[in-house]
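Input record (one chain):
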Amino acid sequence: FEMTSEPDQLGRMRSWLWTELVGQALPLDACSALLVAVGEICNNVIKHAYRGQPGLPITIDVRAWPDRFVVDIEDKGVPFNPSLYRPPDLDSVPEGGMGLFLVHKTVDEVAFDVARPEGTRWTLVKYRPGAAPARPA
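The corresponding structure, as predicted from the sequence alone:
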């Protein structure tokens, strides 16, 4: 799926992604979780990687396996810099940082690749119910 870096493209992406996930018999709560996570990554790409500049490419690829779904989101913008990320202070009213926090809370695995000629590739993994590896407590 390809979209461009305008916030109004997020609705089109969500519609496409929902159809893809439901069509693979993923339970609705897991579909919703992936929808939130992919939407947050795309929103961050628009806001941070592309700094609000419209018309730039965002590519999304969904792969279904018997035990999991893998979603890759790629951009050609400013690469993600993890040293600049600050998790939100949930004891106060956070002004930012909720996007990646939500991504980590809604999917089972999050990875990113910035060792590319340009941009970032995000990889999100959501396991089917009963298939997730044990998470540390």
